[in-house]
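Render this sequence as a predicted structure.
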Amino acid sequence: MADSVQPSRAEIERQLDWMLLHPLFRVREKQAEMLAYLVRSALEGAKLSELHIQQAVFPDPPYDPEDSHVRTNINSLRKTLRDDYYAGDGQSDPVIIALPDPTEHKTPSGKLVKLKPGEAYTPTFSYNPRAPIAKQFALAHYFMHGGLPEIERSLKHIAAIQKAEPDHPEAALSFAEAAGCQLLLLGTSEEEGRGVLINGLLALIELRVPAGTDAWRTHNIRGFLFTVNGQLERAENEFVQALTLDRQATINRGWYAFFLHLTGREQEALQLFGMLAEDGATNAQVQAVYGVYLCRGGKHKEAERSLAEALSLDRNCWLAHYGMVELCIETGRKDLGIDHAKRLQALVEPEEFERMMEQLGREA
């Protein structure tokens, strides 16, 4: 699923209990025992090895590293999960429990990459795209990067998740990110008030998100919140940790490029925004973001092309119209700027439009 949103521990445990009651696993006692051991060990953060599995599930005969007994049973369980359970009665279950397939880990040239010890035995947990909660997360993250009305819609989807799954760690992260987006757009003028709100969001993450829960995302959102609050040194420390854990996912979320721009590393930021724009070639919002930052980097022709592309994808993309107003101020095209300002005014709330115009006036 997008953004690596993971099911909560309670959801995974419910899914495991449900599966163990299914006839498929009730007649496969050893597979059921092994599945339960692998899932519960993963939830506790334990590192799994053939020796551990042998001792827990197949105590007799004694472990022999030359024996493929554990690997054979792991392969059999992997196929049961994929080809029997989730292809049959479990196809609409909310959570998918799977075992990594070594044959799917390849380099771009097609060469197999050997998994690290234990990785092949550590189950992965993800939402079934058909599950209602997965759809709520997808919508929440889609609207999160819009204007204030879209962010309100994002928060409503997050509230629905929290109602269905109270104390869901990923919902807490999503709420903190959406609220941070609100603060960024609102541009709270009182530094002390903004700091109180940011500290509240950071405390929420500390309270609701167990250590190690999708850790790259936790560090990434903390980095974003510190950036919004002007605590750039602390933001950089968080982003470094996020990049170390999952570089591509951190870059794809966009906040690290935003941080780079704020800290004067415009070329590096533009390079990352360009990569995101290339990957999101049909996404008007992504093209508009790239156009805005190209404009701020003084690359006016490239900015206009990117903003025009955004408007060709969605003529009601408010950020593209905002970018065109900013570009027209920079290049002295008053009439065209007024046209886009009128369109922008029709797309956003009056208070939001007033704030935008004030910000552009300060930057001009």
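Summary. The longest strand covers residues 95-98. The chain has three domains: 2-127, 131-264, 265-364.
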